[in-house]
Design a protein that fits this description.
This protein has 581 residues and is mostly helical. The protein has helices at 4-7, 15-57, 65-72, 75-108, 114-121, 123-126, 129-140, 145-149, 165-188, 193-201, 206-217, 219-235, 238-243, 252-263, 268-294, 314-340, 357-365, 367-398, 403-418, 421-432, 446-456, 458-470, 474-482, 487-515, 521-524, 532-541, 545-568. The chain contains 27 helices and no strands.
């Protein structure tokens, strides 16, 4: 065996000293990497939130709690807060009522087609809220093309029943039922078969065993699911914008949008105060969800998940499940499709009137919509590429942190996604309105939208990559380090190739979420930088619902195509990355 003197030129170094030297150099390199990662996390997550709070409570540089309270005490703000809490609460209740039975059926029974049902139920979560609202508006409105084909359309001049409070609550339930489904499925899949079999052996019926054993055990997950649905309702902009603003039923996000659109940056202290209120409500819901799940793990003993056999109820219950899916998904989608195929509202759909002119208009002829498709693809693609690449080194460094620090960093990364998009948009306006050193002002530019997307969807890119990096054996990295490979080379040759599939999946999730996003871009867009969500909203407001429907159908097609790509990609991903798997 060669000695250290044979290998290293110059003064010989003893083996213990060599190890100390290598360890010290590695520790120094890790500290630099850790500081860089923490800086990135702070810039993307903490800085915009801190700037928003400062603008709300100290707009002039001095703390002024009285002025902050006065801004929140306006009659319009109090009314909007009441509407927000009302619709978010009842929307969460109905979301639990809709998503809960599907979670039980898909997770704990032998229902035929349960995997397809689970996949379809998640579609509203992947489709933009404004698209959901538009589809239901065109389904039940007096100009409904679909109902007109069967003679069931309401008489002309009839108010659309979807407008206002009840319509918002209904669509919150539809839009957020997938959140309930995912959360409850995680809990139900961990209920051990032994508990259920013991109850059945004692003479309990399946219904009794489910009601008295399984559901009480997963009660924390029910609370967590309701809290997440409530948070999503508090920050939802697309649904109340299309269903509430036409009848002056404003929630906090739509009030912020209306104030900024009417008065411009001059009202930033006012809307910053409203944004902080929205953020506090959302974070209270997130805290409730975390507290509910904190003590949930000890309730489970592990083992094979429980399963109920439905027997003769299999086909009737499957038929009922497909009927519900048809009512909340298929019919609204068909309403969008039929509306997009007529030349204008009021024209019945038939072989003589069917046309693809709306698609030609928005995809080829109309400059603003063509530009919106290009912008959305470019902005979403840029954010997805940046985050997919950046998530790998960030995850590798965070994997070296202790568990407590990992949880803290994960919570900070989740912050821009946990708060409503309108809050993040206002934070970005405040952060980039004034010129910054070297880059100047980013307000009213495409860059501010890309940065906002990167902030908001950072956690979507991080979670699958962090899971993949956590599964890489440390032995590989240590063997490469002993062989002389530096940190960058180990990252490029070990971590990056092994985590690449998860990074691609995270990038696709980011692209899909940002492609037809409205909540953030509604406040950040400028002339020439329109996005699909903004153009769709503008066309519907202008009475061009047939063209808006064509855009909506196009975006749904893109989302479904990406979902299918992700599903085919699932075998190469860590477990739990895709919620329908």
């Amino acid at each position: 065996m060669s000695s250290a003197q044979d290998i290293l030129p110059g003064r010989p170094i003893s083996a213990p000293a060599s190890r100390r030297y290598t360890s010290g150099r590695a520790t120094s390199g890790f500290r630099v990497s850790a500081l860089a990662v923490l800086l990135v996390i702070a810039l993307l997550s903490l800085l915009p939130m801190a700037r928003l709070v400062v603008a709300a409570v100290a707009p002039g540089g001095e703390l002024d709690v009285g002025a902050f309270a006065d801004r929140l005490g306006r009659p319009a703000a109090l009314r909007a807060m009441g509407h927000t809490l009302d619709t978010a609460f009842f929307g969460a209740v109905f979301a639990v009522c809709l998503g809960g039975p599907f979670a039980v059926a898909v997770t704990m029974t032998d229902l035929p087609g349960r995997k397809a049902l689970g996949f379809l139920l998640l579609l509203p979560l992947m489709i933009a809220p404004q698209v959901t609202a538009l589809s239901w508006l065109h389904l039940f409105g007096p100009s409904s093309t679909l109902l007109g084909m069967v003679g069931l359309a309401p008489p002309p001049g009839t108010p659309n029943p979807m407008l206002g409070r009840n319509g918002i609550i209904l669509l919150y339930a539809v839009q957020h039922a997938p959140i309930v489904f995912i959360t409850l499925r995680a809990g139900l899949s961990r209920v051990p078969r032994d508990l259920i079999e013991a109850a059945r052996a004692s003479g309990a019926t399946p219904h009794y065993a489910l009601r008295t054993i399984a559901l009480p055990v997963v009660r924390p997950y029910v609370v967590a699911a309701a809290a997440l649905a409530f948070v999503s309702g508090v920050g939802n902009f697309g649904i109340p914008a299309l269903l509430g603003m036409p009848v002056n039923y404003l929630t906090l996000p739509t009030l912020i949008y209306q104030d900024l659109s009417s008065f411009g940056p001059g009202v930033l202290p006012q809307i910053a105060a409203l944004s902080v209120l929205v953020g506090v409500l959302a974070l209270a819901g997130v805290a409730c969800q975390s507290l509910a799940l904190r003590g949930a793990a000890h309730r489970f003993t592990g083992g094979t998940p429980a399963r109920f056999e439905l027997g003769g109820w299999r086909l009737p219950l499957a038929g009922l499940a497909w009927l519900v899916i048809g009512a909340i998904l298929v019919l609204p989608a068909c309403a969008l499709l039929t509306t997009s195929l007529i030349p204008s509202f009021g024209v019945p759909l038939g072989w003589g009137t069917i046309t693809a002119s709306n698609y030609a208009e928005v995809l080829v002829r109309q400059a603003s919509t063509v530009r919106a498709f290009r912008n959305s693809a470019l902005f979403a693609g840029s954010a997805a590429l940046i985050l997919a690449i950046g998530a790998i080194p960030v995850s590798v460094v965070l994997d070296r942190f202790g568990r407590r620090w990992q949880r803290l960093a994960s919570g900070i990364v989740d912050l821009p996604y946990a708060v409503p998009g309108v809050v993040l948009a206002i934070a970005c306006i405040l952060l980039f309105l004034r010129p910054l050193p070297l880059i100047g002002s980013l307000y009213a530019t495409a860059s501010i939208i890309v940065i906002a997307y990167a902030m908001r969807f950072f956690t979507l890119a991080m979670k699958p990559v962090a899971t993949a990096v956590g599964q890489i054996s440390r032995d590989l990295d240590e063997a490469a380090a002993i062989s002389g490979a530096g940190p960058l080379r180990r990252l490029a040759t070990i971590a990056a190739p092994l985590a690449a599939p998860a990074a691609v999946a995270g990038g696709l999730l980011v692209f899909m979420s940002a492609f037809n996003e409205l909540t953030v871009s509604a406040l950040l867009w400028s002339s020439g930088n329109e996005t699909l969500g903004v153009v769709l909203f503008s066309l519907e407001e202008a009475g061009l619902g047939t063209q808006a429907s064509a855009i909506a159908v196009s975006t749904i097609t893109v989302v479904i195509a990406l979902l299918l790509v992700l599903d085919r990609f699932a075998r190469r991903l860590p477990p739990g990355v895709l919620p329908w798997r």
